[in-house]
Amino acid sequence: MRFIIITLIFCLGIFSIANAQMHGKAKIDSLQQLVQKSADDTNKVTLLNSISYQSSTIDPDGGLQFAFKALTLAKQLNYRKGEAEAYSNQALNLTSKADYSGALENHFKALAIHESMNSQQNIAVCYSNIGVVYNNQMNLEKAREYYEKALEQFRELKFEQGVATTLGNLGLVYHATGEHEKALNSFGESLHYSESKNDTTSMAICIGNMGNSYLAQNRLDKALEYDLRALALNEQIGDIVGSGIGMGNVGEVYFKIATDPNTHLLDSLFKGNKQKAIDLAISYLKRSLEIFKTIGFLNGIQEVHKYLASIYESVGDYKNALAEAREHMQMKDSVFNVDNNNRIAAIETKRLNDLNQKELEIKNLRIQKAEKEQWLLIGAIFFLLIISIISYNRFRIKQQSNRQLEKTLNHLKSTQAQLVEQEKLASLGALAAGVAHEIQNPLNFVNNFSELGTELIDELATEKDEEARLQLLSDLKENLGKINQHGKRADAIVKNMLMHSRTESGTRQLTDINKLCEEALGFSFHATQAKYKGFSCDIEKHFSANLEELSVVPGDISRVVLNMMNNAFYSMYQKKLNSTDSNYKPKLTLSTFRGPDRTLITITDNGLGIPADVQQKLFEPFFTTKPANEGTGLGLSISYDIIKAHGGKITVKSDGNETAFVIELRIG
Predict the structure, then answer these.
(1) Which of 11, 214, 347, 642 could form a disulfide with 223 if both were Cys (CB 3.0 to 4.6 A apart)?
(2) What is the DSSP letter of 305?
(3) Can you give the residue range of the structural domain that contains 249?
(4) Final residue belonging to a domain, choices 193, 215, 237
(5) Is residue 120 domain-shared with residue 252, that is, in the same domain?
(6) DSSP labels for 93-116?
(7) Rounded to two decimals, what is the model's pTM?
(8) Which pLDDT tens digit goes with each residue over 179-190?
(9) Rounded to whole angstroms, how far apart are CA atoms 644 and 424?
(10) CATH of the domain at 48
């Protein structure tokens, strides 16, 4: 027979153990009185959920109505925990009505809320309860999956009651799949937890289920032992349903003992008296039947009648067999009618719930729409006010900013003009220093030859010898020629200085680049020697012989080359000044080269070098690596703009040992 296998429905995450054990209409009545006195708050949600839970075994239709009320109020209060409890209670009541798809839908809604709240224990409870529904559907694979997930989480949380309950339910899956040893192990471990907590109800369930597994293995001695233990515990705690089930199970074992030729129990218990064993089996089954009739347990009644009919038929008592069979068929019809009525009631309840839900949603939508329109209007007014204030403030700030920016721009333009002029003057100063040094040599020659000429004239005045006088005149003529030569040299230097120092720009003319570079080199080198006493440098010049004259602004190009050389000499002087290498010798290389469409001027020095990060900023205005009193940071910036205006470009390469600036000028 074994018409009952008890599943532990787990709602510990929703209510306390005390609540879970309190059933009956009296409890529901007392809770309803509390609900009537309660305001619409979270406490009322909890009370409604409690009534729904208590109603699940005796009035699932009523339980669904209370769960719906709890759900509606919880949503209005945004009480997520109460909302999850309401979904779980709806699932519990739907399970009682065998509406398993609806039960699963509600369990998963509860699970989603608990997951969003990261409530680990309640998540595990939901897993367990979902497993119960799948078990009732006989979807054993899914039931096992969710039981195992729940068991793993309960073990991690060290929640012993959850572990015990889930082990018991997992044992039922093993039993249904014929894995009886696994079932016994699960029931046994669950029993151990229940015994440690002295939970007699759970102990009775576990022991009874172990009896079922032993019977399935045909281990009748163990089956009888555990069924009698379960019956005793159920009678001890006054569990009428459990007692009825236990008596039916004991009766079934006695009948198996009477009819199984392979068991020794008939001899040991009944001294081989088969009829005595059958009579005892019928006795237990009839006591079970009386209990089921008393409590109106229709499924139990029809199963007992069916089993009694098979017993009577096996012993040839066809009269009683027929009577029991008739009772079984009548009860089966009754159960069918009850099931139909339950299904009809469930459909009607669902229709009413859906209708109420729809009306509530419409009402809430209307309220939300009105509130939304009101807030939108307020928001629009407030937004326009804020925008107006912000726009006015921005207008005032923008006016002030524009005035300040205009003032700052004028100041910057003035400062920039001054700095550019200062840079030009600095370049001119360096040029003048170089020219002074250059012009000193011809002036010295002029002075020396002038003095010599005076001496020759004096000698000529006193000399009487005609041949000697002719020689003196020849020497004087030669001396005057040298004075003229060095005077022209000084004149050329002055003209070149004037050409290099011109401030006007824009007038291009054909220019000998080799000559321009050589003169700029002389000016820069002598200016550096004048500024830094004792400075010396090896200079190499490599000028291309086939270099054509270029149409450039010579003063501008000269200023660029002069600036590059000044920087090179400065870098080498600083390295010499600060170097610990006594063998270091400054060296500058100036070269020109004619490409297919470009003329290249390359100035290479072995000074300090330029780091890569500095190279990227080298041509930016006001950027300088020199001390504040030695550079404006405009020299290279102006040089870059001059070469760019000529259609060329300046590039720099430095490896730490040598630095090369390359000026590219377009031909034609």
Answers:
(1) 214
(2) H
(3) 218-289
(4) 215
(5) no
(6) HHHHTT-HHHHHHHHHHHHHHHHH
(7) 0.48
(8) 999 999 999 999
(9) 18
(10) 1.25.40.10
